[in-house]
Amino acid sequence: MELQITVSTTSSSYEGGNTTIAVGDEDKPWSAWRQPWYGVVLLVVAYITVAVVGVLNNALVIAAVFYHPSMRTITNYFLANLAVADILVCVFVLPATLLQNIYTGKNHF
Fold first, then answer.
1. pLDDT digits over 3-55, tens only?
2. Are 22 and 2 in contact (CB under 8 A)?
């Protein structure tokens, strides 16, 4: 059972509006986060590590196929294409997923 409290805000941006917060969120410095601060730090470090390693290693695959004529086969072109797709995932999807995990605390797999 989840207990929620409705708090009326009087700031200029939410004048007259209502905000719903869960019990225990009021002690967080950033109440928008749904993870504890150490969880946010762990998530950020993990996501940045995965993104950097993913971009660098996939760039090496693309460079190997591009610079070595013996590597220019149909199969290696396919692998280079997968490396490009993986780089795009690392650049565009990982940051959005990180923000979703920090601010909503939900994993949609």
1. 555 555 444 443 444 545 555 555 554 567 777 888 889 999 999 999 999 99
2. yes
- 61 neighbors 78 (Cβ within 8 angstroms): no
Output 93 or 32, whichever has higher pLDDT. 93
H/E run at residue 8: strand 4-8
Give me the numbers of helices (H) and strands (E) for the chain, helices first please.
Answer: 3, 2
3-state SS, one letter per residue, for 43-74: HHHHHHHHHHHHHHHHHHHHHHHHHCHHHCCH
Q: Is 28 exposed, middle or buried (0-12, 13-18, 19+ CB in 10 A)?
A: middle
CA distances (Å), origin 79, targets 47, 76, 105: 24, 5, 34
